[in-house]
C-alpha cells in the first residue's frame, strides 16, 4: 500500500452524454454511469477506485449535472457531500474544472488538483499511479502538467502532444516540457507521429497547482475567471445558490485545452509525463468494440448478460440490455445495440455518425429515448 | 367480370414454416399468415382473392396443418368447412396435393385441380388469370400443365422448365410441351437460360385433371398413391380419423416435382403455359427486401407501421413489429427484423443462412421463439 499525496485533490468532471454511444448512453444514464468493461462497476466508479490510492476518499471531487447528483452519490457512497459540485447546466471543461479549482483553492490554499475524465478506461494501475505521482511533482514546481498517452497505433481520433526537452524535477524522471499541442491529424500525419515517438495522445488529464491553473485561466479568459472567482467566494456560504444561478449561465463555454493548456504550452509552462498504460476514451462503438473484443477481432463480442445471442459467420459487437434472442448472420463488422426502447445497427466505420441519429431524434421530438 | 371455370378446383397447400424468414415467420405464424406486401392482408388471403374470379368461393380448398386450421378459417371466412384439409403432420407436396386430388375426385369425378402455393406473391391479376385459363384448357386435354414464370433476371434461386414444341389446344395459345425440368443452376448456366428465353422458372403451379394426376402418381409412387386412395375413400365417412391416423404418418415425403412432374415430362405428358406476370416466392429476406423496395434499392425499406425507423446513409430492409426506435447507420445492405422477443440482423448475401439460426435455436431448446 503506497501513501496518498497530502496536497493533491482529484477532480472528476462527470458530464457529457456520450451521444456517439446512444442508445446505450442516455441523457439520464450517461456513459460514465455504465459498466463498459464488464468489470461489474461503472466507469465513474472505476475512475474513483483508480484515484483512491493517490488521494484517499476525502480528496476526490466530482463535477456533475444536477440531475446526476443522486446517481453519483449512489455510485460513490464514500464521497463527502462537499466534494460534489453540481453544475446547473453544462458549460464545458474550463468552467467545470475551474469551478472545482477555485473552490478548492479557497478551502486548501496550496492544493494541487488533477482532472481525470469520469468515462475513460485505463488499465495498468501501477503505471497510472507512477505517471500521476510524477505529474504532481512537476506541478509542485509551478508547471501545468499533462499526462500524454504513449500511442498504441496511429490514431486519427485523438489530439497529440509533442514532447520537448527533459525537465529536471525530483520524483519525475520521465517529465518533459511540451513543445506543442496538435489537433486530431489525418492518417498520414498520424502515421508520422506514431513513428516519431515524441508524440503522445492528449487524454485531457491536467495536474496543476490550483492557483497556477487559475492564473493561466485569468490571463487567457479573464471574464470566465472573474465569474468563477465570484462563484467560489460564495460557494461555502448561504449566497451560493443566488450567485451560482446568476453567474454560471453567463460563463463562456470553452475547453480547458484552449483556455489553459495551449496558451501555457506557448509560454513553456506546460509539462508532460508519458502515461505508459492502456487508455481508451471509449468515444464511440468502434472503440467500445475494440475494448470488449480485447484482441478477438473475428468474433462477436457481447456486452451484457444475454446468453441468447447467436452469431453465425459474423464478427462485431452486440450490446444487449434485454433478454431477447439476437441473431447476427453473415456480417463481418456489425454493431448491434439492443435496449428496451431503442435499437441501433451500425458498423465500426460509421460509428462516429451515431451522433447524427441523436440529432435526428431530437429534431423529431423523440427526446424520451435520448 | 369474367366467369368462373365450372370444373376447376384450386388447391392451396398452406404448409411450411418459412425458416429463412425467421423471426418474422414462426411455427405458430408461418409466412402465409403474414402481410409481406403491405397490402393489409396475408399472403394466403391474397392467394384466395387471386383465385376467386376463376373458381368462386366454393371451389378453393386449403391443405394445412391442424394447428393452423383456425387461422386459415379466420383468414378465409367464406371457405366451406369441407374444403379445408387438415394434415396431421407435414408430409411434403405430393401427399398434400394428392390428398386433395383424391378426395375431390371422389366428390367431383371430372374435376380439374390446380395447385397454388399459399405464400407466393403475384402481381398482374389479368395475366395470371389468362395463364390459369390456358392451363385448364390444356389440362382438359389430359396433360399435366404447369405455369412457368417468364424470368426477369438470371436467378440461381429457382428451378427451370425448358419449353418444347407448341401445343395446339383451343383456348391455350401460349401452351407448349415441356422439354425438361432443371434444378437450380449455377450463375453461368442461369445467364445462358435467361438469354435463351425458352427457359421458364418453376413456380410449383400444376394444373391437371385429378384422375390424370393420380394416375401419374400411381405409376411413380404406387404406395403413396394407395395410401392416399385409402384415406380419400374414408374421408367423407365416419372412418376418416381412424384411417387418417393410421395411414397418413406412413406416407412417403416427396415433392410433387419428383413424384409427378418430372416423370410426366419424360413421357411427354407435361405441358407448360408461360406466366407473364410478376411472381415472387419470397424465399428469404433478400427476396423480401427486393419486393418491399420495389426498385428503390438505395433506401431502407420498412415493412411494418413503425414511424420511428431512422436510416442514416443506409440501404436495406427493416421489418418492424414493435414500436421501438430503430436506427440504422452507414450500412449499405442491411436487413433488420425486429420482433417482440427476437431480433435478426443480416444482409442480402447471407439471407439464406438464416435457416441455420433456426437450427441453432432448436438445438439450444429455444423453440419458444421459433
From TrEMBL, chains A, B:
GO biological process per UniProt: GDP-mannose biosynthetic process
Domain named Nucleotidyl transferase: residues: 10-291
Protein name: Mannose-1-phosphate guanylyltransferase
Keyword Transferase: yes
Domain of life: Bacteria
Cited InterPro entries: GMPP_N, ManC/GMP-like_b-helix, Mannose-6P_isomerase_type2, NTP_transferase_dom, Nucleotide-diphossugar_trans
Record organism: Microbacterium sediminis
Molecular function (Gene Ontology), one example: mannose-1-phosphate guanylyltransferase (GTP) activity
Keywords: Nucleotidyltransferase, Transferase
Domain (MannoseP isomerase/GMP-like beta-helix) ranges: 308-361
Pfam assignment, any one: ManC_GMP_beta-helix
Entry keyword annotation includes Transferase: yes
Gene3D superfamilies: Spore Coat Polysaccharide Biosynthesis Protein SpsA, Chain A
Amino acid at each position: 500500500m503506497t501513501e496518498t499525496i497530502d496536497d493533491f485533490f482529484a477532480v472528476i468532471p462527470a458530464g457529457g452524454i456520450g451521444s456517439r454511444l446512444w442508445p446505450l448512453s442516455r441523457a439520464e444514464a450517461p456513459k460514465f454511469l455504465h459498466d463498459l468493461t464488464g468489470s461489474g462497476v461503472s466507469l465513474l466508479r472505476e475512475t474513483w477506485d483508480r484515484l483512491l490510492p493517490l488521494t484517499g476518499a476525502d480528496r476526490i471531487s466530482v463535477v456533475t449535472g444536477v440531475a446526476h447528483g443522486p446517481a453519483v452519490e449512489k455510485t460513490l457512497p464514500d464521497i463527502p457531500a462537499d466534494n460534489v459540485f453540481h453544475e446547473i447546466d453544462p458549460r464545458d471543461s474550463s468552467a467545470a474544472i475551474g469551478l472545482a479549482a477555485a473552490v478548492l483553492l479557497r478551502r486548501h490554499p496550496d492544493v494541487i488538483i488533477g482532472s481525470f475524465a469520469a468515462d475513460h478506461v485505463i488499465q495498468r494501475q501501477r503505471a497510472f499511479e507512477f505517471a500521476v505521482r510524477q505529474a504532481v511533482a512537476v506541478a509542485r514546481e509551478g508547471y501545468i502538467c499533462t499526462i500524454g498517452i504513449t500511442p498504441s497505433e496511429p490514431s486519427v481520433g485523438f489530439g497529440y502532444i509533442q514532447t520537448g526537452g527533459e525537465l529536471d524535477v525530483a520524483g519525475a524522471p520521465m517529465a518533459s516540457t511540451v513543445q506543442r499541442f496538435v489537433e486530431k491529424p489525418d492518417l498520414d500525419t498520424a502515421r508520422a507521429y506514431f513513428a516519431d515517438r515524441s508524440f503522445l495522445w492528449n487524454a485531457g488529464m491536467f495536474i496543476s497547482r490550483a492557483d497556477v491553473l487559475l492564473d493561466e485561466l485569468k490571463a487567457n479568459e479573464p471574464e470566465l475567471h472573474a465569474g468563477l472567482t465570484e462563484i467560489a467566494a460564495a460557494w461555502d456560504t448561504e449566497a451560493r445558490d443566488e450567485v451560482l444561478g446568476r453567474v454560471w449561465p453567463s460563463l463562456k463555454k470553452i475547453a480547458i485545452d484552449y483556455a489553459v493548456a495551449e496558451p501555457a504550452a506557448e509560454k513553456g509552462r506546460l509539462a508532460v509525463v508519458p502515461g505508459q498504460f492502456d487508455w481508451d476514451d471509449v468515444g464511440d462503438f468502434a472503440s467500445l468494440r475494440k475494448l470488449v473484443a480485447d484482441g478477438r477481432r473475428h468474433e462477436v463480442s457481447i456486452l451484457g448478460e444475454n446468453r441468447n445471442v447467436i452469431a453465425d459467420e459474423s464478427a462485431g459487437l452486440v450490446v444487449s440490455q434485454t433478454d431477447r434472442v439476437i441473431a447476427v448472420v453473415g456480417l463481418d463488422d456489425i454493431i448491434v445495440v439492443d435496449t428496451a426502447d431503442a435499437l441501433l445497427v451500425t458498423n465500426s466505420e460509421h460509428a462516429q455518425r451515431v451522433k447524427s441519429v441523436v440529432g435526428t431524434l431530437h429534431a423529431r421530438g423523440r427526446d424520451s429515448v435520448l
